[in-house]
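Collaborator request, handled under Task 6.
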Amino acid sequence: MLNAETSGNAPAVLIEGLYKTYPGSIAAVRGIDLSIADGEMLAIMGKSGSGKSTLMNLIGTLDPPGKGPLVLPG
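Structure tokens returned to the collaborator:
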């Protein structure tokens, strides 16, 4: 599997320790680390309510992160 560390490309998305909590202390995303290289394809899979849509909204900058860096170069 291709990743940013082995491909030689700078990551297109870099996430380290990302958290998103909603009112009422509902933790939708907890401590996500993810590096996506430019041109890399991946699937985000999980059970209903596991935070997939929240993670995509964070990567797409639709929602602000609660804690942790989300780096989108360029």
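The cover message to the collaborator said: "The first strand starts at residue 11 and ends at 22. The two ends are 24 Å apart (CA to CA). Please let us know whether this matches your experimental observations."
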